[in-house]
Amino acid sequence: MENGTVENRVCSTESVNGSRDVWSCKNSDSSSADHLVIMVHGILGSNTDWKFGAEQFVRSLRDKVFVHCSEKNMLRLTLDGVDVMGNRLAEEVLEVIQRQPNLKKISFVAHSVGGLVARYAIGRLYRPPKKENVEDLTEGTSRDNLKATIGGLEPMNFITVATPHLGSRGNKQVPFLFGVAAFEKAANFVIHLIFKRTGRHLFMNDDDEGKPPLLKRMIEDYGDCFFMSALRIFKRRVAYSNVGYDHIVGWRTSSIRRNTELPKWEDYINKEYPHIVYEECCKACDTEQSELISADDSFDKLEEELVTGLSRVSWEKVDASFHTCRQRFAAHSVIQVYFMPDEVRACIVTCGGLCPGINTVIREIVCGLNYMYGVNDVLGIMGGYRGFYSKNTINLTPKVVNDIHKRGGTFLCTSRGGQDTNKIVDNIQDRRINQVYIIGGDGTHRGAALIYKEVEKRGLQVAVAGIPKTIDNDIAVIDKSFGFDTAVEEAQRAINAAHVEVESVENGVGIVKLMGRYSGFIAMFATLASRDVDCCLIPESPFYLEGPGGLFEFIEQRIKENGHMIIVIAEGAGQDHLAQAMQAADERDASGNRLLLDVGLWLSQKVKDHFTKVKKMEINMKYIDPTYMIRAIPSNASDNIYCTLLAQSAVHGAMAGYTGFTVGPVNSRHAYIPIARVTEVQNTVKVTDRMWARLLASTNQPSFLNSSEMLPETV
């Protein structure tokens, strides 16, 4: 079963087990491409590492290439060993070839350890010529049978990017060990504890049944694996390497060079590709190592054998340096960026109600784009979605947003509604905006989903990223939304104030109304955190007032026991009964949210009337509504950190070419989620779960499950 997408005439499918195929759309048919490109990720990587690269291949070579991003060795499977992964990759390549019978050529592009895996795989996929020489050619026999193949296809390009061809053992091959002999020696003994069998292969301390290290076996044809024969038949072999700032794979091992062969690159100039600092075409060399070099104490015998063996085929060596880039310290891992920084024009918009942390998210998006990627062109859309077509914008720089996280509200102002999708996308197109960051709740995300669909329909290269904002924590899929922790913390102040008030008078009853239109998370968590609350009422758990087990009975009981009582109620609790009692119409705001009546005031009056008129009992009612105070404060330390993670995750996703997504933690792991998914359902308190059971145990309040007494005062 596969999910397919079409974007800018580039088709892609992703299977349930994670593999990704990308090809040029021609009537949604992949049959026109005859060149298979296999893209292999590195250690602990996944098929999405090459998403951008795959799409660029297809855009540049329309109708010519069919790109497959390997999936058989993702994440922890990359620790199983180069040989095991190589066998899996070989099987995967044959499966792709079988699915696409029109293929004639094959190329490999591999990153890091993936380059070693690809070298092993081609050794398994090598098919020798069916005829020994041309003299055996008879009538009816194709000349293709005289050529060696890779899985039956003509081998074209074998490209590695930052691949440790000479392993990672000693001699400064792993830069983060600083070339300290003691560190390198220690790493040799513990690497298998971290990277398992793959680590042994990289440090060449594997000893499979007395065989030489695997990397040494791979510089010749060994057993039924034709490693060098396979590598030799590719028309081109290219090794890309980082001259510096690659703290995982050293320059020598990725460029297959000895110390004495490392070039002086500082004066090399490439105007077209400024990060390319040296290029070299090395012819095949069959000379024995003793004739090639003099003794080099910094290069041990085993590594010399690897250099000599791999030098028996020609290589194009391309050396890159990112020393002028802001993201240079991630030179090994950040192998693809969809947008070039100087081409990015980003915009940020905030919609819906206020929430602690909005300004922090704005600040971190601006600073993340600038500090991490060097993006300087960021616009702030003022006043919500309407700001797009009212052309009300402000230029955002790190200096402009430097201290806005210390303020509540939103620096960009906000509004509800105004989702004229065509006008918004027209404006995005007119202003040449190619990254849109939308901060808002479920209504805002519904609008973002429409914007994404329209952008996709027009074939625009625009990344649409959402950052979920709802103080109620009612957005589905993600673990929690930003501002929630701050709201719970600030709610404690209101509850504490109510507790002081009711403790100071006779028969004091305090009612604190908190946010929670459809979900009672703030009320529930604030109650659990306070321990001063006697009863918590939320939209998900209906309650009734009169009769056995009702709220009035519980209030009377608590007043007799303690002399006072605190009730926390979510704003959405009891709305159906309240609307019926007041004969109110079902009105909605510009975002489509139901307009709520003040349940706090209604409940205060109901409790007061019951005890003064029915029970003839004097009570002191204290009603506190801190909702707007809570919404308007700056975020606390926990939410500031969380907002930073969300903002930077959105920036990384957009810069990598993802679009139509929102960000957030799912099961404690940050993920990119299709925007439509977070608006399908609302996140609500499940009264059958443990958290609600813990609250009931803490307050000892009634469960309000006695339905026979729920009418006419059911709420």
Automatic annotation (TrEMBL):
Q: Which residues bind ATP?
A: G353, R416, G417, G441, D442, G443, T444
The primary site where this protein sits is: cytoplasm
**Compartment list:** Cytoplasm
Give residue ranges for domain DUF676.
31-253
Residues annotated for substrate binding in this entry: T470, I471, D472, M515, G516, R517, E571, Y628, M629, I630, R631
Query: Pathway involvement?
Result: Carbohydrate degradation; glycolysis; D-glyceraldehyde 3-phosphate and glycerone phosphate from D-glucose: step 3/4
Under the heading PANTHER family, the entry gives: ATP-DEPENDENT 6-PHOSPHOFRUCTOKINASE 1
The annotated subunit structure for this chain is: Homotetramer.
Protein name (Swiss-Prot/TrEMBL): ATP-dependent 6-phosphofructokinase
Q: Organism source for this protein? A: Salix dunnii
